[in-house]
Amino acid sequence: MLLTLDILTTAAILFIVSIGLLAIFGVLKIINFAHGAWLTVGAYCAVVTAKIGLNPWAALPLAFVIGAALGGLAEHFIIRPLYRRPLDAILATWGLGIVLGQLITLAFGRDVQLTPNLYAGTVEILGVDYSAYRLVALGIALAIGTLFALTIERTRLGLSARAVIMNETLARSLGIDTGRVRLVVFMIGAGFAGLAGVLLTPLTSVDPNMGVSWLIGAFMLVMVADASYLALAAACLVFGAAQVLISTFVSPILGSIAVAVLAALVLRISPKGFSRA
Amino acid sequence: MVKWSLVGAAALALAATAAQAADGKPIVIGIPIGLSGANSVVAPSVVQAAELAVEEINAKGGVLGRKLVLEVADDASGAAGAQKAFDSLIYQKKVDVLISMETSAARNAGLPAVTKGKVPYIYTSFYEGHSCNRNMFVDAWVPEQQVPPVVDAFKAKGAKTYFLIGSDYAFGRGMLGFAKSYVEKAGGKVLGEEYLPMDGSDWTAIVSKLKEAKPDALITSTAGGAPNVTLTKQLRGAGVTLPFANLALDEGTAKSMGADAEGVYLSASYVTGIDSPENKAFLAAMQKKFSAELRTPNDLSVPEYEAIYLYKAAVEKAGGTETAKVLEALPTVSFTGPRGTITMSKQHHAPLTMYLGQIQKDGTVKVAGTFKDVDPGEQCPKLP
Amino acid sequence: MLETLPVAERAAAAPRGRRLSRAAPFVVAALAALALWIAPPFLDTFAVNVLTRSMIYAVLAVTVDLLWGFAGILTFGQAAFFGIGAYATAMILGAYGATPLGIAAAVAAALLAPALLGLAVGWLSFYHRSTPLYASVISLVVPIVVVQLIYSGGEWTGSSSGLVGFDVLPFEIEGYFRLAALFLIVVTLAAWILVRADAGRALVALRDNEARCAYLGLNPRRLQIRLTASLAGVAGLAGFLFANASGVVAPENAGFLFGTELVIWVALGGRGTLLGPVLGTVAIDYLAANLSGDLPFLWQLLLGTAFVAIIILLPGGLADLVGRLWRALPVGRRVPAPPRLVARTAETEATAAATPILKVEGLAKAYGSLTVLEGIDLEIRAGELVSLVGPNGAGKTTLMRCLSDGTEPFTGAIAVGGTPITGLTPNRIVGLGVGRKFQVASVFESLSVADCLRLARAPHDGLSPVGQAETLGLPQPALDVLRMTGLDRLLTRPTHLLSHGQKQALELAMVVALEPRLILLDEPTAGLTKAERTTIGTVLKALTAEGRIAAVLVEHDLDFVREISSRIVVLHQGRLVLDGTVEDVVGSELVRTIYAGGAHG
Question: Above 60 in pLDDT, residue C6?
């Protein structure tokens, strides 16, 4: 039972962390290497919220807005000039990540920051005492997934985004302002990354480097998922389960590299990853 | 003849001034330290402690009439940075001695330069033990000194079964490896020993294993800072409340964890609450010198302070800064500081008084036990 | 005669300039070696130590530059290979001491262990249709896994503390400085020779246009895997030197952060220039040793900002800036001598008239529920010039794709010269004698006309790994194409400066140079002038007239089709609706209906 809950909540956390990256990768076809820095920025929004004495949950909208605003700037000044050079975009966003990390360090110092707990305590569920926050995170992941699905399936923006994903040239010839779609999607993706940063604060230490350890896993999941949020959900479940099972029954050390290694192998065998399903 | 004697007199005079200059020349202490990287949280407090020691010594006339000067170099908390920092200090700044706390990787990376450059080196960080070099002395604790107070205390409370969790690196494995053998020697049983990579952030499976194993007590030894906070948050999130000793916890980190750290045990050779005149004087002097800028003194900064005094004593005994003589003197001199009387007399390591502390609700540490002069054990049997 | 005269003149002038330019790198290398050899006494111990390591890092930068700057493989993995070499050295020297045997074993292990892992990584990263992004991602995973293994290695690897105190080569620091300098110079010189040599052009070709490489019969996968493995070996050797020179190895030496640092140095120095990365690495690392101690965070911030700015504004790095200034000077503008064109006798044996060159039976292909091709049966024999016509969306280009790439999922059978091609990658089909010209001219944009042609001859003549051949041997038809289009006078011109028509002609010449038995051409005349069309038509007719080669072309221009074809095949809605002589088809009512209202109604 504990195992099932661990798998579900682990998958949920992976999903929360990588959905912003997926949005950007899907539409812009670039990997935002500064994703880790956005997680960190989001988490520091929680620190600031606590410092000015607001409710810890108020950090969520704040992180979304700040993440999206920074995303807009990054898209305009860094991503757009590199549209035709996707590998260079990886490098430039990595550089951006370094810069953001150092700016955070200069502003807040290197120290681990104290953040208020969003939701403390445990609940008894199906016979086991389980972390309440992880269950909340599971709910939030479902909510984010639903919100994402509705945006993609039901809104004009979603329609445009889907058109750009399928065939950008065609989309442009149909009168879709693809430049604007890319900007808006990048902002939303960055906003979700900021949001994820806040949601991570009850689980991890908040310091200028906190994002890096989540980066590679998110990255691999998104590669496997290609551009589909359903495939991402499936990938999070499968690889999250692999991580938990390997950690539990073999070794947590192997478990921690399971996502990266397994995803690499899956991509080698089936280059389209999970998106075909 | 006259000419010759004149020249001779001039030469003598020159030699005399040269000797005087050498005497008046300041003694340079090199501090290679992680101003950036993993150690950057604690490094400022270490530098502050060194600055206080130097100021105090210089105010009382220096060492053998020579002033002390500090040279600080960032080693980025890693091996590559340490190589640069040690080279810079030894060859460029020509320091007389190196005194500092560092990660084990940085220390090891610097040791070849210490040997080649023939300088004494006092290592002031607690570490996993068994690092041996003719030029290096250690005035901080090793597992043999830190673990027994914890296990003895848990045993006294009736704990029989233990669970060990750590970061997968030399310190984490060294500490828990020793803890395991000590627990077993004491008749206890280790139900599980689990590690996560240093930069790992998801302890889910390990926490669940811990809950399934239902031990009487938990001992953790993660990398400092982030992994420590992450593990503690996830343990508390999962509702783990059993007796819990954190071998990598310091007072500063405990404070930044807030309520999550309450009740956790730590074992250290220094806590701010030590009730001795030396400690009170030290804390007051730190407060006076740095006031608002003060970084809370801790188990890594106080050994730095004391090491500078130990070096002073060794130079005075050796009659100069010549490396061979200083190395000969170092194991024989003592200094009574905030942690008590320190002598690095045992195989380049020091017997220390250890304190068992428990974190209070407000983040302060209450001393729950004192263990006098705990021996570092067989660290470097090949060294005198 | 008028045309050959300037060529003859240039040929006479060439050898002196060639000899000079060929000797230059050796002279520069010798001077650099001499300067670095006598440098240590003039430097303080700190500088000697720091520069020794910087030069070893610069060796890695050279390998990153070859992979990324030249071959287009963005890699973060060189750090892992370097770390493995260093750890292998430390572990072996620690166990057996610096005895001759121990040293030999350490060198061998430092070279072979990374090279073997490089092979595995290469296999994982490069396969038919793998993307550059995927290869980069793998190169990220490798150092992460390697570092994890080092952490878990306990006593063996010293875990996080690394290994220290092992025996090393009996050198003083000056000795290591000189050794590192020599190693760096040798590696840089070898790399320099390689990239200037014909084989080096294959790397650039891979970066520019991997598909074109495959369709020239080169095996991109094998090239990429070999490059990865051999440069992993070089990185491992650098690791050997590093372990000896510094006396310590640590996990971060193998880590992914170090891998990204290498890329940053190369980017700032100037990718694709070799010297830029070398100087960039040494300068930045030396600067870091002096500055980062005083301003640790600011240093990182400055480096990060400079990196982002360079990537966006100056992708060629600082070397590009210097290069531009240099070329602005009169001495910097040097036109390389073109190779001499030589005719080669054709090597293709005549195919027995009995076996068709191409045989297609029951070919069908669908994208999901959309059927694109269905029930195609086709036989083409030597000497035929078959035009494939039909309206847009009839499946012409898809058919061409199936004929040249056996990994396309299709049903039915396709055989070239009797060999079934199902499952074969394009380069192997080229090996069967199929040459394909794409609709949009597919050439190597950063290479010269001569280099493009030489690559097309690589499967026949090979590529020199050390020098530039002075002659360029091409079969007569390829020479004809060049002559008729005037490309023979533009051999040294970079192809990105060619006109659209010239690019089309160049690609045709490249395909013809392959000496294929079957040429597939997708709209070879699209966007060409009348004169250019006539030229291409003449070439195609001449090629097939000898009766050894067959050609299939997709074409919209029915006048052109009528003029040159020996046979016309009409595709409509994925089906083959008509197959006959020019007269049959042109007079057919069916074709009129299909093209109803078109230009030929």
Answer: no
C-alpha–C-alpha distance, residues C248 and C97, integer Å: 14
Contact check, Cβ <8 Å, B78/C288: no
Buried b (16+ CB within 10 A) or exposed e, A174-201: eebebeebbbbbbbbbbbbbbbbbbbbb
C252 touching chain B per CB within 8 A: yes
pLDDT digits (tens, 9 = 90+) for A97-124: 999 999 998 898 888 888 888 888 888 8
- Angle (CA) C430-C431-C432 rounded to 5° is 90
d(CA C423, CA C437): 21
**B270, C149, C516: which is closest to A253 by C-alpha?**
C149
Residue C154: helix, strand or coil by DSSP? coil
- The model's confidence at residue C127, banded by pLDDT at 50, 70 and 90, is confident
Radius of gyration of chain C (CA): 28
Q: What is the pLDDT of residues C494-514, one digit of tens each?
A: 999 998 888 988 999 999 999
Helices (H), C342-486: 396-404, 426-431, 449-461, 476-485
Chain A residue with the nearest C-alpha to that of B226: A205
Measured torsion, CA atoms of residues C275, C277, C278, C279, in degrees rounded to the nearest 10: 80
* Fold agreement (C39-323, C380-409+423-594): no
- Whether residue A205 and residue B229 make contact (CB cut-off 8 A), yes or no, is yes
Pick C39-323's CATH classification: 2.60.40, 3.10.450, 1.10.3470, 3.20.20: 1.10.3470
Q: Given an 8 Å threshold on Cβ–Cβ distance, is C134 in contact with A271?
A: yes
The answer to whether residue C264 neighbours chain A at the CB level (below 8 Å) is yes
Closest CA of chain B from A135, distance in Å:
11
Q: In whole angstroms, give the CA distance from residue C376 to residue C363.
A: 5
Q: What is the CA A187 to chain-centroid distance, rounded? A: 13
Check CB contact of C295 with chain A, cutoff 8 Å.
no
C-beta atoms of B239 and A129 within 8 A: yes
Q: Which residues 6+ apart lie within 8 Å of A251 measured at CB?
A: none
Q: At B353, phi and psi to the nearest 5?
A: -85, 125
CA dist A192 and B3 (Å) reads: 89
Beginning with the edge strand found earlier in the chain, give each strand of the sheet holding B68-74 in spatial order. Answer: B68-74, B27-33, B97-100, B121-123, B136-138
Tokens of B309: 């005094």
Across the 384 residues of chain B, what is the mean pLDDT of every consecutive 10-residue run? 43 43 80 85 91 96 94 87 89 93 89 93 93 94 93 92 91 91 93 88 91 94 85 90 89 82 92 92 96 90 96 95 95 95 94 93 87 92 82
Residues of C whose CB is below 8 A from B36:
292, 296-297, 300
List the chains bordering chain C where 3 or more Cβ pairs fall under 8 Å: A, B
Q: What is d(CA B111, CA B131) in angstroms, rounded to the nearest whole number?
A: 10
Domain regions of chain C by residue span: 39-323, 380-409+423-594
Question: Helix, strand, coil shares of chain A as percentages rounded to 5?
Answer: 75, 5, 20
Any CB–CB contact under 8 A between A81 and chain C? yes
Chain C residues with CB inside 8 Å of B40's CB?
296
CA distance A202 to chain C (A): 26
Any idea which fold C380-409+423-594 has? Rossmann fold (3.40.50)
B41 contacts in chain A (CB < 8 Å):
110-112
Q: At what angle do helices C78-96 and C256-269 cross, to 10 degrees?
A: 120
SS3 per residue for B10-75: HHHHHHHHHHHHHHHCCEEEEEEECCCCHHHHCHHHHHHHHHHHHHHHHHCCCECCECEEEEEEEC
How far the first Cα of chain C sits from its last, in Å, is: 47
Calpha distance C533→C550 (Å, rounded):
19
